[in-house]
User: Which sequence fits this backbone?
């Protein structure tokens, strides 16, 4: 009797799938997280459908803000930083070469004074449009108006409230 490689592969896949389902308890995943200084274990059940449909829930963002985060991470974080603090990957190049720093949206003194129109003008026209660095490129021809609006909504999550 000859066993084909396809039937062996099918058996391995079926076994692996059954193992994963048994380990995960159906369609959910349980994660354990230790609380500092104690032996207590907190269990949180996360359903795959929730992770797929609502990825912004874990980040404590609205759907609108999460869409802005995706745009920010792609275009802005390299200079302005993952946390909006002006310490992005490229910020040291700007500091060393040109003596400038990207704007710090988390600065509790300067950031709350920003007007929405000024943020929009800076995104659309670049740094020059608002009297800042020429090294911030204009994104007005790259991003649509709705993308700029959600980007601003996300940027506002960095700005500390007075």
Assistant:
């Amino acid at each position: 009797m000859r066993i084909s490689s396809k039937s062996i592969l099918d058996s391995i896949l079926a076994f692996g799938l059954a193992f994963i389902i048994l380990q995960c308890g159906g369609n959910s995943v349980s994660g354990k997280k230790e609380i500092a200084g104690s032996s207590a274990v907190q269990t949180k059940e996360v359903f795959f459908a929730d992770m797929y449909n609502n990825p912004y829930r874990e980040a404590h963002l609205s759907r609108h803000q999460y869409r802005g985060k995706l745009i920010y991470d792609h275009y802005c974080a390299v200079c302005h930083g993952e946390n909006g603090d002006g310490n992005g990957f490229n910020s040291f190049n700007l500091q060393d070469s040109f003596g400038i720093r990207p704007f710090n949206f988390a600065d509790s003194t300067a950031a709350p004074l920003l007007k929405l129109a000024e943020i929009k003008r800076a995104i659309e026209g670049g740094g020059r449009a608002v009297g800042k660095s020429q090294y911030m490129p204009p994104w007005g021809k790259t991003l649509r108006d709705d993308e700029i609006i959600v980007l601003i909504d996300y940027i506002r999550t960095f700005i500390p409230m007075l």
The CA atoms of residues 11 and 29 lie 24 Å apart. The chain is about 45% helix and 10% strand. Confidence is low (pLDDT under 50) at residues 26-36. The first strand starts at residue 28 and ends at 34.
